[in-house]
Design a protein that fits this description.
alpha+beta; 6-stranded mixed sheet; about 30% helix; binds iron/sulfur cluster; binds FE2/S2 (inorganic) cluster
């Protein structure tokens, strides 16, 4: 049975449940409603992420955070950033299956963004071959961090997704970007590739085709 505790939050009594789970053989006490990733992070257990950022709603698109979750004898592969903890959950953050999936994901992403330092570091860890898949160097692997940060945190929607399927890409919305981005650029460090900055420079050159180096956006 979960251990009940009462916490006082902002002057109100709020009942929270503490749930005990096991991650990599270690007992972890976490609060009801947490995801596996949050529970692991609270216990200093590392799970790699590429599309996750704590200030944003979980997105679950990159799948690099895949772990094995065992509930009542059933084991499945789940995205740690989305999967909610429950009592007696057993999590394995590294296993043959988990490593194999992460390796394949990295090989696929490296075909899109071979120069991403984050991908390169992970590729080394998981023995991923950057040349396994034919290169489709879009330099963006659609993690959505920039788009979501601008929408959820800045509430500006200066950058968004356009097109569908293989043609899906991010694009700055010229009218908004010209007004908002130069004084912000908060999303730039979140991008795991160099694409976001390149897309911004392209936006500037479209706005000021004659001499983009002299524009206000380049300040
Ligand atoms: S530009 Fe960067 S942050 Fe934005 S979706 Fe692509 S990889 Fe992610
Ligand atoms: S970090 Fe979980 S799916 Fe991307």
């Amino acid at each position: 049975m979960p251990v009940r505790e009462v916490r006082i939050i902002m002057g109100e009594h709020k009942e929270m449940s503490e749930i005990i789970i096991q991650i990599d053989g270690k007992e972890v006490k976490a609060a009801e409603g947490m995801t596996v990733l949050e529970a692991a992070q609270s216990a200093d257990i590392f799970i790699p992420t590429l599309c996750h950022y704590e200030k944003l709603e979980p997105y679950g698109v990159c799948r690099i955070c895949t772990v094995e979750a065992e509930v009542r004898g059933w084991t499945k592969l789940v995205a740690a950033c989305l999967y909610p903890i429950e009592q007696d959950l057993v999590v394995r953050t590294r296993s043959e299956k988990v490593d194999k999936i992460r390796k394949m994901i990295l090989e696929f992403l490296l075909a899109h963004a071979p120069c991403s330092p984050q991908l390169q570091d992970l590729a080394q860890e998981y023995g991923a071959d950057k040349d396994r898949f034919e290169k489709e160097s879009s330099f963006c692997f659609l993690c959505g961090l920039c788009v979501r940060y601008c929408a959820e945190v800045e509430k500006k929607n200066a950058v968004g997704f356009v097109n569908c399927g293989a043609r899906r890409e991010i694009r700055f919305i010229l009218e908004i970007a010209l007004k908002e981005c130069n004084s912000c650029k908060e999303c730039f460090p979140l991008c795991p590739t160099s694409y976001l900055q390149a897309a911004f420079v392209l936006t500037e050159s479209l706005a000021f085709p004659r001499d983009s180096s002299q524009t206000a956006l380049m300040k």
